[in-house]
Amino acid sequence: MYKMISKVLANRLKCCLDKCVSQEQSAFVEGRSILDNALIATEVIHVLKRKTQGRRGELALKIDISKAYGQEINLVKSEVFISRNMSHAAKEDLSRILGVRLVLGTGGRFGVGKIFVLCMTLGCVGRLINGCHRLNLQEYIGDVAESILETPLVNSVREDKMVWEEERNGYYSVKSDYKLAMCYIIGSDKYHVAGNWNGIWKAQAPHKARHLLWRLCRGCLPTRYRLVERRVECNLNCPMCDEEIEDEIHIFIRCAVARDSWCAAGLSSVLHNDAYQQSNAMDRIFVVCSNESSDIVGRVAMLLWCIWQNRNDKLWNDNVQTPRQIGRYAFDAWNDWTTEADLVRWEKPALGWVKCNVDVAFVPGSGRTSVGLCFRNNRGQVMAGMTQWQQTVMSSVEGEAWTLLLAMEEARHRGLDRVQFESDSKVLVEAIHMKRRGNSEFLSIVHDIISFMSSFLNFEVKFVRRQANSVAHTLAMAANSWSSFHRFENIPLCIEHLVVNEMQ
């Protein structure tokens, strides 16, 4: 009965509820955050605490509402905070007139954080150093100091800002917060699944095939056995052979159609290998990824995708392919995908132009961000180059933007005015072309790049596939083994074969 009445009332109030929302209720205003009021309250308390001079006093009144519909004020829980330039007697009189309690000291009940209150005055510095408080500030300040030192300095940023790292524009969103929370949940021991996940994502196969391997190993592929586990009523038998229960091992390994497809694709040696006879599909995939080359893993992934595609086509459209057709299509699709990737090559710039390829690399465990860039003329000959590493860890897009900015500064240093810059970061190139603005470190660097290009009208930025950016990538990887800053005019040995190949 309660649910029915609530539903009726909600539907009746729907037409007029928006007229009852005032502009102060930020939770209902588009583009505003529910935390805005708390942040404003914190700033107000800070201003009142700092106000020690002047004849005019100011106060902040915290009103506690007894009822949710805002028709009754609880004076017992309501409080007032008055600026410090008012006498104590005046504060007491105002508190008595208003009928609410006077808040003394820090104003912590107004939502001011402990660290903020503790560091409010210079008189607290001694207490912070001597550790006469209950907070573990040594660990806290150490983490903050390390983060500050790892923050890249951007010329256009003159003062510190509050930035939400999970969004490229630097502004908070519930969507990114939810994704961050899910990453923490999935990364916890309760949900973590041990295995060679890197082997899956490094497989030489289209993303859709690698994604199928991931779903298979996570147990979220909707086979009939999995559907029944989730209380979906359906027939358990395999739709291809109608003989056994359809689980991951059966549909991809034991089914007669699947086994013949493996042979037709030229992967029978992988299917019958004694080392790959684990009892579940996840363990088999992980072992194959650990023992086989990325090409073989890619062919296996493409075959499994074709088997699953054929199964769905049979189930929903009643279209059936023979095992020979499945295996042949899997091999041809994988071969076409790898051939297309190999066809992507670096192109020489036009006459009178210089091309500069840039890339960034992150060496695991080093705590460094290393960059590499190379200038080449219209014949493909190396004119100059530079490598640099910095003891800081950036995000990939921040590193790409920082590298491009360094390349433009290097071009100016060498007196080059007609330069095409190529990066394999599509996000960066689109941000520059669309002149995106925001509060994040990434977009701050992008703003510097756009400002730089406004002074050099013949600077162009283009996106290039990773296969055509191998010279810059190799330099970025090698930079970690050299000095922190290295310029060169002669071709380093690590890229000599790549440059010669791309000159042809």
Structural features, described:
This protein is of the alpha/beta class and 504 residues long. The protein folds into 3 domains: 111 residues, no CATH class; 147 residues, no CATH class; 150 residues, Ribonuclease H-like superfamily/Ribonuclease H (Nucleotidyltransferase, domain 5, 2-Layer Sandwich). The protein has 21 helices and 9 strands. The protein has a 6-stranded mixed β-sheet, with helices on both faces. Helix 20 packs antiparallel against helix 21. About 3% of the residues have low confidence. It holds the Pfam family RVT_3. GO terms for molecular function: nucleic acid binding; RNA-DNA hybrid ribonuclease activity. This is RNase H type-1 domain-containing protein.
List the helices and strands and how they pair.
Layout: H1 2-13, H2 36-50, E1 59-65, E2 73-82, H3 88-98, E3 101-102, H4 114-118, H5 125-130, H6 137-149, H7 174-187, H8 197-201, H9 207-218, H10 224-229, H11 248-254, H12 256-264, H13 268-271, H14 281-291, H15 294-317, H16 323-343, E4 354-363, E5 368-376, E6 382-390, H17 396-413, E7 419-423, H18 426-433, H19 441-455, E8 459-463, H20 470-478, E9 485-488, H21 493-503
Parallel strand pairs: 2-3, 4-7, 7-8
Antiparallel strand pairs: 1-2, 4-5, 5-6, 6-9
Keywords:
RNase_H-like_dom_plant; six-stranded mixed sheet; Nucleotidyltransferase, domain 5; 504 residues; RNaseH_sf; three-stranded mixed sheet; RNase_H-like_EbsB-rel; alpha/beta; RNA-DNA hybrid ribonuclease activity; 3 domains; RNase H type-1 domain-containing protein
